[in-house]
């Protein structure tokens, strides 16, 4: 498979240069009717009805050979015939007489190109008339076409959009029927998609983007579009919420543990208080019992002391006396004994001193 190369460069409305791998040509006209000439003198005229597939093509060269191509009709006329005058060799003569230079001047400076075409080319008069008429049409169109007055852009810049979201932009051009190229739309980043029905902007990354129009020496206002990665933001919010929930749960657990420890300490303190009260009550009871026991012992001791009281016995008689000088006994013969002893000996108390 051979490598092919073809590129068309638009010079003016209805005029373009065709660059091939081995040649160059110029085309004048529109899709319905256009005329192509190359430096070697080959001329191709095409007339058709756009959108129907019906067209008529006629090609002629400096050799006098004419080729026809039809879809639904034929034309028996020709641009040239074998008996017509054969043009000069385009590679001979002065530079401005050569076809390639004439074509170049037709494209770059058409007034001179038209003059040289009429003077030095052997193209048929109808072809020259058609080319002249086309250039006249282009010139008149350029002179009468509306002049660009102003351009402005508008969009909802009050909110922040998601990345890769299509953001609608409205362009107002004065006059409204003025056609500006897509290249007039400028931006500091992102992508601008333009169609007949809408203009949308999208950006793959979060940030702030500037968008404006610039064409024909006129610059529009600049609008700012802000974008953010909403998915990443939601994930970050979820992570922050999760961390906050974990911290709150940890704090709550610590508070519950602290509360439980305080309740446990209070319970132990209450138990210790109750134990202390019980111990105090027990000690008090024991002290009371001990006091009672000591009082009882003292009472017993006192009773025993009473029982051990000393009495006096006389040498004769069966009575014991409280004092040795009782009138009923001889003090010289009295002897001292304990009450219990006297009672154990069956002595009875003296009615006088007891």
TrEMBL record:
Keywords: Membrane, Transmembrane, Transmembrane helix. The chain crosses the membrane at residues 101-120. Residues 58-92, 255-304 are annotated as: Disordered. It holds the Pfam family DUF4236. Residues 3-57 form the DUF4236 domain. Residues 58-87 have a biased composition (Polar residues). Residues 255-275, 282-293 have a biased composition (Basic and acidic residues). It comes from the Bacteria. The keyword DNA repair does not apply. This is DUF4236 domain-containing protein. It comes from Bariatricus massiliensis.
